[in-house]
Amino acid sequence: MLEATIKKQLRDFELDLSLRVENGSILVLMGDNGAGKSTTLNTIAGLIAPDAGKIRINGSVVFDSEAGTDIPVEHRQTGYVFQRSAVFPHMTVAENIVFGLHARHRDPAFISGQVSRWLDRMNIQDLAEVKAARLSGGQKQRVALARALATEPSLLMLDEPFSGLDTEIRMSVKDVVRQCVSELSIPCIFVTHRKEDAKVTGDRICQIERGRIVREGPASGFFG
Predict the structure, then answer these.
(1) All domains of the chain in start order, with CATH
(2) Most-buried pick from 79, 128, 174, 212 (CB within 10 A)?
């Protein structure tokens, strides 16, 4: 479970919100550009320090302003897929997936199995030895998802993860994300501007305006 209370002064307003995401559940964050959605993900990941608050992942406190706790990003065991897939262009697809696993110090047998598994689940087996620089935007995004999920993170965060995917691939990747969040029994936060993605992928939806949650409810029926 993710429990997060965050305060952060931004240029035009203060980010001030509380989130709770159950294991196996996907919370969608929606709102206009600049509303604070990506900043929320970055604070939870440890890329930005909140001014105040507390963040707990599966019972472990990773940030607590009062106690002076701020666990480094590399030790938070989060999987984070950015809007612009941050793959390493000089590495092959397989090497990109392996990189995240090496960072978690997993044994060679586990790494080999995970690479094969996620190449297959993302339907990119034929791209295993292709340099990431030669991939399309949609292919890079599938590689980024594979790399994040292969580490079996304690929390998955997705910032517009389906951008660049065509309709057919978009649907299949949505299904994979939902299946994996359920199978791994982890909380997931998913940022999107697309109502259809929110309805199909999320369990609950939070609408954010100027750093505050103005509406929250089940994905089914959220849009009327």
Answers:
(1) 1-77+154-224 (3.40.50.300), 89-152 (no CATH)
(2) 79
92-95 contacts, C-beta under 8 A, 24 or more apart: 92/128, 92/129, 92/130, 92/131, 92/132, 93/119, 93/124, 93/127, 93/128, 93/129, 93/130, 93/132, 93/135, 93/143, 94/119, 94/128, 94/129
pLDDT tens readout for residues 53-84: 999 999 999 999 999 999 999 899 999 998 77
- Among candidate residues 5, 180, 183, 6, the one with its CA nearest the CA of residue 81: 180
pLDDT in tens, 16-56: 999 999 999 999 999 999 999 999 999 999 999 999 999 99
Check if the beta carbon of residue 52 is closer than 8 Å to that of residue 61: no
Measured over the CA atoms of residue 38, residue 44, residue 50 and residue 53, the dihedral's sign is: positive
Is 37 within 8 Å of 203 (Cβ atoms)? Answer: no
pTM higher than the cut 0.70: yes
